[in-house]
Specification:
This protein is mainly alpha-helical. It has one domain (2-161). 73% of the residues lie in helices and 5% in strands. A 3-stranded antiparallel beta sheet has the order 1-2-3. A hairpin with a 2-residue loop joins β1 (124-126) and β2 (129-132).
């Protein structure tokens, strides 16, 4: 829902002249919200009581979701649903994926905060793109696809364990 708006804002930033900075900042904001809202929906299917405050979401993924996957894999192993090697594989892939997911969300959140709350940090324009604090609009545009790839991996693991 927010991704098309972000793309439109990014296109406007590239041709806006005096308002280019504002359009660029708004694009980073919308790209962030695409990733955030997709993640919030993902986490709520496991536990709606998990805090989904912006700055805490990476920790929720790395701690709460991994605890759920680890405990579920232990139970699945004890009941014979999965083998010991499958349990270790699931735990390893989940941990790696969660770290990547959390890192992506931290980058997105920090960039969004810079865009929203640090007006002295200028949006830099070059060629066919723009950036703020070293993050390009093209990198921000990929946040949602990165989120979706990691959600797919984690959901697949959870399905193996019967928790999704």
């Amino acid at each position: 829902m927010y991704q098309p708006v972000a793309n439109t804002l990014a296109a406007e930033a590239l041709k806006a002249g005096a308002e280019a900075d504002a359009f660029g900042r708004s694009a980073f904001n919308r790209y962030y919200y695409s990733a955030y809202l997709s993640t919030r929906e993902f986490l709520n299917q496991f536990d709606s009581n998990w805090g989904t405050q912006h700055a805490n979401i990476p920790n929720t993924i790395e701690i709460n979701l991994i605890k759920l996957i680890n405990s579920s894999s232990e139970k699945a192993r004890k009941t014979g649903l999965i083998s010991e090697s499958d349990k270790e594989r699931i735990k390893s892939v989940a941990k790696t994926t969660a770290k990547q997911y959390a890192s992506l969300l931290r980058e997105a959140y920090n960039t969004r905060c810079t865009a929203d709350y640090e007006p002295d940090t200028k949006v830099e324009f070059s060629g066919k793109g723009f950036s703020i604090s070293g993050t390009t609009n093209l990198a921000a545009e990929r946040w949602l696809s990165g989120v979706n790839q990691r959600k797919t991996t984690l959901l697949s693991l959870c399905k193996e364990l019967g928790i999704a």
